[in-house]
Design goal:
The protein is α/β, with parallel strands linked by helices. It has twelve helices and ten strands.
Length: 320
């Protein structure tokens, strides 16, 4: 069984709502194929490449530039429309709901609604919340509920605007291509060193783009923490033990040499297949084809390949 853990779904209602911002839509830096909202288009692509199920996620930057109440509305629309697609095709789609923590009380109400009414199997969060780190104490009540519901958190990167040289427009998309992986990495860094992972040891965190910078710089990170930041960890606990809370999806756009790096870090039990559909060339088909090709090019045992392609996602999302 093949499950795409990071297949983004921008419904027609969400697409219309976010088109008022400068980021998404025709002529912007984040154009997306409108046919993505057509289930028959998605199903045809899945059938072509032998993908059995998509976990419907939202791309977190859709709330950038919106006020807290507007961001909450985008989340509500996204979660409802994801569920409608899951309900229409229960064997093909599963719902990973989207939340903005700009208004924590609103997010907690939406989480309860998502679990009780929308068959929520996971949580998508942006790597920062309007500039606030995911380790902010005001988010703790939300994490407590996530752990109680035993839901994985999928961290999707978003913009950070403090460094002009990586501006999305003036820096030739530098923010989206290189700035986003940095923001994913800082989110994981802060969750560990702030003590958030220790406070909520039941958290299961899936990092987009195969862990971003963590796999490539893992020893650099580990050595620096052991030398000068060890006091930020729980006494007697090595930094490598914290990595067990993190998973990585394989959305690397087909960079064949990079998959073994991610796999060496996350291993067969904490890797999930993901494509980043519908972004990429050919209305997203390029990412589907090339991510599958890149994953299958890894020289790993067949039993571990099955885990990567579907069994790990099936376990995380409680798919029967």
């Amino acid at each position: 069984m093949i499950i795409d853990f990071s297949a983004h779904h921008i419904s027609r209602r969400v697409g219309k709502y976010i088109s008022r911002a400068k980021w998404y839509g025709p002529g912007t830096i984040m154009n997306f194929p409108e046919q993505n909202a057509d289930p028959e288009v998605r199903l045809a692509l899945m059938e072509k490449y032998g993908v059995d199920m998509q976990a419907l996620t939202q791309t977190a930057p859709v709330v950038v530039g919106f006020k807290p109440d507007e961001a909450a509305e985008i989340c509500r629309l996204s979660n409802d429309d994801n569920y409608a697609l899951c309900k229409a095709y229960p064997k093909k789609f599963v719902n990973i709901c989207f939340f903005s923590l700009q208004d924590v009380k609103s997010a907690m109400k939406e989480l309860e609604r998502a679990v009780k009414e929308l068959d929520c199997r996971g949580v998508t969060l942006g790597s920062n919340q309007a500039g606030k780190g995911l380790d902010s104490a005001e988010f703790y009540p939300f994490y407590e509920k996530v752990v109680a519901y035993d839901l994985p958190i999928f961290i999707h990167p978003v913009q950070w605007e403090s460094y002009p040289l990586v501006d999305a427009y003036k820096g030739w998309k530098n923010m989206l291509v290189l700035g986003w992986p940095f923001d994913t990495t800082q989110a994981a860094w802060r969750l560990v060193l702030s003590g958030t992972i220790d406070r909520f040891p039941g958290l299961k965190v899936v990092l987009h783009h195969y862990g971003a910078m963590l796999p490539f710089f893992s020893r650099r990170i580990e050595q620096n923490i052991r030398m000068s930041l060890k006091d930020r960890l729980k006494p007697g606990k090595d930094i490598t033990e914290y990595w067990k809370s993190f998973y990585g999806d394989t959305a690397l756009d087909g960079a064949v040499a990079s998959y073994p790096v991610g796999y060496a870090f996350f291993g067969p039990d904490r890797t999930v297949f993901g494509t980043d559909y519908p972004f990429g060339a050919e209305s997203g088909e390029d990412f589907y084809r090339e991510n599958l090709k890149g994953v299958r090019a890894m020289k790993i045992p067949a039993r571990d390949m099955k885990k990567v392609l579907g069994e790990n996602a099936k376990r995380l999302l409680k798919i029967k």
